[in-house]
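Each record in this resource describes a single protein on a pair of labelled lines. An example record follows, reproduced without changes.
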Amino acid sequence: MTEFWVSSGHHLTQRTAGGGLAVTDELILAYLARPELVPPEEACAAERRLYADLVAAPRRAVPPETVAAIADSDARENWEVLLAFRDRLLDARSIEAAYLGMVRQGLQGIPSLFLNQLVHLILRNALDGCDDPFVLRAAELMFRPQRISRLDGAVLLADAEVIEAREGSAPLSPLVAMLGKDAANELDILNEDNAWSYWSRSDAFSMALNLGSSTRSREGLARVIEAFVGHLLNVEVRVAPLDRLEDPDWRWFVGLDAEATRIGNALWRGETVSGDDRERVIAIFSLSFADRSRLDDSIGDRPVYLLLAANEAKLVAMKPQNLIVGFPFKKTEASC
């Protein structure tokens, strides 16, 4: 099996009997190694002592007064956030269960960075053994914001962090600068000929994805959604990409990001949607459940539609948690 996404930290975890991932000391130590938490030279003795104690025993209980003794207010806040997040991981039976609990109980106080890291890790587990680079590149949308650009009619998605780094530190080629094209267009676009190279750079996130005209890419994202939903909710779903939403009797939709939710709500209310908003919708899917007995009776035999959109800044920031809380399950199901 070809390895991918080492940066997810998958190798720092252990698989549970139920197929989830167990939190290990090594995973917690990886969080402690983040630059926001490593005490700087000017850190007070209380912060240095806390850090040393946790490196020695990552699961050690930390009383509130220990954090309160830290002199720097920003450092105190960082430690409060990290320790609350760590404790929620340790209290759950698996990383997957911890993520579900966070999504269902509220995400207040949890940095999006931590959530994205969890999704990265969960998808690495759910897609273990996947040999399709189109599926894996599409999965990056679930945990890394993307910059959208258009080239010769194609809708291209490139990693926003990679693009920002290129725009900020690396000059564009003279041709690109002269034509005023996006930096994303300088990246290799994943296709049948270069797909083999994805494995060697899966952790660089340096390949653009043609989500507009590439059937393989849209099918890849459909397979990712199936795997994510199936792995976390233990339900079998089938997802199919659509060219447009033409169903006059659509009963339910899930916005895969904040912008898609806003546009979908406007359509749901029968409001006129501007041309700019329609252009922002870059992908539409239909989702069907194998076992419909878990769905609210009002849905009948109709599919659930999924919308994905870019915002005004041409960013696509998926919210995979919407796939956890957005389905029309019966109330007894939603509380499980």
